Amino acid sequence: MRSLIDIIDLTPEEIDGLINTAEDIIENPEKYNEKCRHKKLATLFFEPSTRTRLSFEAAMLELGGSVIGFSESSSSSAAKGESVSDTVRTVSCYADIIAMRHPKEGAPMIASMRSEVPIINAGDGGHNHPTQTLADLLTIKREKGRFDNLTIGFCGDLKFGRTVHSLISAMVRYENVKFVFISPQELKIPDYIKSEVLEPNKISFSETESLEEVMPELDILYMTRVQRERFFNEADYIRLKDSYVLTNEKLTPAKPDMCVLHPLPRVNEISVDVDDNPRACYFKQVRNGKYIRMALILKLLEIE
Amino acid sequence: MNIDSIRNGIVIDHIEAGKGMDIYHFLRLDELDCSVAIIKNAASRKMGKKDIIKIDSALDIDLDALGYIDPDVSVNIIENGELVRKMHVELPEKITNIIKCNNPRCITSVEQEIPHIFKLTDRSRGVYRCIYCESVPKHKM
What pLDDT is stored for residue A230 in this prediction? Predict the structure, then answer.
């Protein structure tokens, strides 16, 4: 029995397999609409997340399965002090697979050690969010046709952004991938990502504070939110916040086939006028998230 | 106890000078009834100076814990006054309940019964990370 806790639990070959399944689902949705008949997905959301929960639920429903669960811990027995282990052991008596979001880092791993059914980590605090990374990867594959020979710019909050760290971990396994990290000093990529992920894999990377400067060289631009609460003082936030807002004007020197990604929700870091730019792929990313979750559910349930 | 000769027991040698007491407390040697000698700042050709612990009793030492605290120590097993085994410890791949995760966002901070497990992620720099949240402990012990 397999669970998915961290994106690197999956080999590149397994990721290719999931992407192939997702693309087949996109091409032939009718082939899949009964695959999970009589199967139940439990969505255990110990903290609210409308987007991810609905994506999982839509994925299971489109596979012909059904969904049970809760969307905040106050409506679960966790509010009575039950441990994650006990909740999961109980729910695994009712459901065939569990998608779990928890504010504490490592909670889904504990769950996977105790559960009798596969666990999918749907986000554990600021730690991992592997199905977001799978959505990112499917979008990259569909838009660029490859994972190798890409220059990927990450812009915004690179210090706390779990989606950034997970996508880096997934992409370092491919040939000739270069990273450009675009952030204010306060939100730079952490040193441990450099020493434990980039350097051992001999990955070429550069760091800059200027998005405009590097725009022409990027194949992918991964935007993230710069959050006010990450700054030590208001003056720094005000000084920097507009530097990391993407507009159509800033996109002018970009490659015509460059692809703009964002894990969403956005606040103001991508101007609404970019939505109609052909480079904008973030809503495709949302749709792809559902398809890759469908592929993942099939894989973990060992349904062909 | 004659610290030069143990009949049946253990000598923990090549301890980095100053760490002898840490190991003494960590291995809970203060709870033993037998004689235990801590020699501090003994002359060492290899290390300049070192600490040594001699325990006048056969007991099981947690070599993983010892390796985590000081991967350069050697453990000599003495039987009938003879050195019968010399063991070198190394940084263990995994340590359980030796140190605690101090990340307040980690699941171990709220669920008390979970074992605190750390895995070695960078042998050259001796970096351990919590298997749940992947954070590095702030203090080694």
Answer: 67
